[in-house]
Design a protein that fits this description.
Blueprint: H1 14-28, H2 36-48, H3 53-60, H4 79-90, H5 97-105, H6 110-132, H7 185-188, H8 194-207, H9 226-239
Helix pairs in contact: 1-6, 1-8, 2-4, 2-6, 4-6, 6-8
Length: about 240
């Protein structure tokens, strides 16, 4: 079912391939709040955003909020869900709190919001990695039938973020492993839905660094050294207007 294979002169380590296969399987399976069909539909909208005329027009505008219209979308997702996916994919650097509040007011729950964010990020990691190697995108997986767990971390609260999250002191046993060695703001972001948080970070850490290695600036965990990694990361962040 994974369809994740590499035929390239570049060495792609097996642990990375395994992480991508796991991510594709997780996207296809029911999550905490979305069933398999809707999760795969989210992944499809990530790709549709690249051909969306409204997204292109907004990206070129001085303010994306000055451009009205409808996204080029098809499938089982609602308009607010599609807006969330397309904006996260095409122009995340110019989102603001009032926009997020509008998505919630349109009927997207916090839990679904978080689960969608996790899927968007997972698809973009895998697709961007393939593009960097000059390879075509993988086919999206077929949805897997099943029932969502409906789990929301009971300790999640609105703090100073746009969406509820779990502080380390509020983690309960039913949340499972949420933080381990790292509890920075970016790591807390998806903690409202622990399953979504773990799925994203299992993939992200394999493409960057495990949380346990983040404070080790002499780490030998990757083929390039930490200074080289941060130079690449800083340049990519600047190009994407990511100020984190």
């Amino acid at each position: 079912m994974s369809g994740i294979e590499y035929d390239t002169p570049y060495h792609v380590r097996e642990s990375l391939v395994a992480a991508q296969r796991l991510a594709w399987r997780r996207i296809a399976e029911p999550g905490a709040w979305l069933d398999g069909e809707r999760r795969v539909a989210v992944a499809g909208e990530v790709r549709a955003a690249g051909d969306c005329a409204l997204c292109r027009e907004r990206k070129q505008a001085l303010s994306p909020f000055a451009v009205a219209g409808e996204h080029a979308a098809s499938g089982p997702l609602g308009a607010a869900e599609v807006e969330l996916i397309h904006r996260l994919t095409s122009d995340p650097g110019r989102l603001r709190r009032s926009w997020a509040e509008g998505i919630l007011a349109a009927g997207v729950s916090e839990e679904v919001y978080v689960e969608i964010v996790g899927i968007v990020c997972m698809v973009m990691i895998v697709d961007t990695f393939r593009r960097a190697l000059g390879l075509p995108q993988f086919d999206l997986p077929a949805p897997v039938a099943g029932t969502q767990s409906g789990y929301r971390a009971p300790g999640a609260r609105r703090h100073d973020a746009w969406i509820s999250l779990v502080q380390p002191d509020d983690v309960v046993e039913s949340d499972g492993d949420l933080y381990g060695a790292a509890a920075s703001p970016v790591v807390k972001a998806l903690s409202l839905v622990p399953e979504a948080k773990r799925a994203y970070w299992d993939l992200a850490e394999e493409h960057y660094l495990p949380g346990s290695e983040m404070t080790d600036f002499a780490t030998g965990a990757r083929a390039i050294d930490r200074m080289q990694m941060e130079l690449v990361a800083g340049r990519v962040s600047a190009l994407h207007q990511c100020v984190y």
